[in-house]
């Protein structure tokens, strides 16, 4: 049941699922919680929001796992470089997903573990 007035509204909500990952800058685990809340609220209203929300959540869970492992590797010396690289990749990939979603294009995050199907 589509409750969105226009396809633009639908794309905007799908984009917000990706954008909400930046909540992690302010709230611990906000990168997962933000997309999870939006996806939970709107997944029944739109197939696009359902699909994009799952992609965002899966990628952010994957990044959280990678960041945790990199944090452990700080003690070995390589972790700091990995943490910086992962933070930059997260920023770049989320921005790419936002732009592609707004343009109506499909975007699949690289390095994403498919946890929510």
Automatic annotation (TrEMBL):
Name of the protein described by the UniProt record: DUF4870 domain-containing protein
Residue intervals passing through the bilayer: 12-38, 65-98
A Pfam family matched in the record: MamF_MmsF
Keywords from the named record: Membrane, Transmembrane, Transmembrane helix
Subcellular location: Membrane
Membrane topology label: Multi-pass membrane protein
Transmembrane recorded as keyword: yes
Natural source organism: Ancylomarina longa
């Amino acid at each position: 049941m589509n409750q969105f007035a226009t396809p633009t509204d639908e794309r905007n909500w799908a984009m917000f699922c990706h954008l909400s990952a930046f909540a992690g800058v302010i709230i611990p685990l906000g990168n997962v919680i933000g997309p999870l809340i939006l996806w939970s609220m709107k997944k029944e209203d739109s197939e696009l929001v359902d699909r994009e929300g799952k992609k965002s959540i899966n990628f952010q869970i994957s990044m959280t796992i990678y960041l945790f492992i990199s944090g452990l590797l700080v003690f070995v010396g390589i972790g700091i470089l990995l943490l910086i690289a992962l933070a930059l990749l997260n920023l770049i990939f989320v921005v790419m997903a936002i732009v592609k979603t707004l343009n109506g294009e499909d975007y699949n995050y690289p390095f994403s573990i498919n946890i929510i199907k």
